[in-house]
Every structure is written in C-alpha cells, then in structure tokens.
Amino acid sequence: MKAIWYEKFGPASEVLTPGEAPTPEPASKEVRVRLSVSGVNPVDIKRRRGGRGAMDTPRVVPGFDGAGVIDAVGDGVSGSRIGERVWVYEAQWNRPSGTSAEFVTVPAPRAVFLPEAAEFEHGAGLGIPAMTAHHCVYSDGPVDGQTILVTGGAGCVGSYAVQFARMGGARVITTVSSNEKASRASECGADHIINYRKEDVAERVAEITGGTGVDRVVDVEFGGNLKISLDVLKTNGVLSSYASDAVLEPTLPFYQFAYKNVTVHCELVFLMPEESKQKATSDITRWMEEGKLRHNINKRFPLEECAAAHEAMEKGSLGKVVLQINERV
User: Fold this and answer.
1) Selecting from 2.40.360.10, 3.50.50.60, 3.10.450.50, 3.40.50.720, what CATH number does the domain 129-270 have?
2) How confident is the model over 124-165, as pLDDT tens digits?
3) Does domain 2-125+295-324 have CATH number 3.90.180.10?
C-alpha cells in the first residue's frame, strides 16, 4: 500500500517520506479500513516535530482521523461490517500506523458508521475536533438553558462546539479575530460574536448576559485566556480547555477559582471515558444523519503531498486540511 511515514523528528519536507508499506491485517476485534480521506490535525504536526515525547517505534505513519470503507475484519467482528462506510478516530493512538496511508487497522469501535449522505472528507474531519468539542460541551451534563462561551469559534474544535452547544439548547457566545472568522462562527449558529482584537471580551460578555456571566467556557487557550475565563464565569461555572499553546505552564490563581467554585477540565480526547466516547459518536452520527452539521474543509492535498498539508496546517488554516487518498473506495 501507499503510505507516508517519518523515522526521525524534523521539518515536514525533510522527514515525511512517501513509499510502499505492507498492507496491514486486522487483529482480533479489529477492522481494516480502505481510506478515502485522512484528516490532518495540529497534534500530527506537534508529534512530527518532537513536541509530544520520544518515538516509540522506528517508523511512524501519522494521522489519527480518516474515513473510508471497511474491507476486512478480524476475529470477533461480524463480517456484515465489510463494505460499511465509516469515520475513524484514534487510529494512531498507542499505535505506530495512522491514516496517512491507503489502509489502516483500528479496534472495531473506533470505526463509526458514516451516513450515506455524508462526504468522506467530512467524516475524516470529525475525530479529534468533534470528539473534543462534544466532551468540552457535555462532560458535566445537559446544557439546555445555559449560556456558553466558546473561544475561537471559527476553529475546527470551536466551530463544532458552537454547533453542539446550540443543538443542546444553549445560548452561545464566541470569540473570533477577524470578520471572515465571524462569518464562519455565525454560519455555525453562534448567538453573539465578539472580535477580541477590537472589543473587551469580559465587558461584552457582561453586556450580553446582563452581568450574570456564563455557565461554561469551552476554551482553546487555557493560559492566555485565564483572566477572561475567571472574569466571565458564574459561581459554580465550568472551564473546559483543550489547549494552552501560548502559555505552556500557566500560573493558576487558586483562590480566585476557589471563591467561584469553578470546575476545571483539562481535556485530552484520547483519554475521554469510554462512555463519553460512545455518547459522542452516537450524537455526532445522528446529527450527521439529520443533516444538521456544518463542516469546513479548507485545503485538500493528495496523499503524496502530505508534507505540503502539514506545512499548510503550520501556517494556519481557517478550516480543515485533508489528504485525499482514494477517490473510489
């Protein structure tokens, strides 16, 4: 099979190598997926650069997310799944080979039914962003009637968080940094949009909420947004953050959190409880079947141009970057 891999850390153009690799066989309770599209995520770039620990294997095929068709199953998996359209998540978690290849094997639950009406490229963009967004919104229960602030509402995670919160009955406030991003956030259903480059976020949230604040913050930058989160959260509010790249080791003002009794979740999608993963895949698939989800695919590259896809992600992409692998599966 065709695949892309790296054997050392470094710049994409220097270490990502295209070539032929053995086609994997599914082990017990696994399925093999012939991939149509692979999704590129920031964590793929961070791992390839060496920012997420040492390499556990001599060769790594990157990519956690993808979509395609099951073409083989291992023992313990019904043969009826062969031919099923699926979206794949966590393909490379604790495994050396991910979705930057023509085929990938994953535990059967990690290949989720993809409705016929959904494009493969949309399924390939779900795993990390949509699963993260779902847990950030719903980890503490229903959000009907709540007010939620989603920072970075035009991003891959943020845009799904806006949609999921709205579908759960919440009022959604989001922050963006440009008019183009404001338009994207509006398309996803945000009720109120704040350009944080031009407006004071805490003041605007106070105006929007009549001074009561928000029940939950879904946050893209824990350290950089810490003061804002504290200012806007209600007593007994919840802060769910999935990144802190601008401030890697933030100083936590403990008593400011304590005197609001704030619950803080530092989210890593791979370690979500299995029950939460099942709930997320169920909701996401149902919403896709109902045609309720908006997806933002920004750039498409053939598999052989995986390095260019990584570079596009590094430069900043307003929307998803994907690798197109097989036009017909």
Assistant:
1) 3.40.50.720
2) 999 999 999 999 999 999 999 999 999 999 999 999 999 999
3) yes
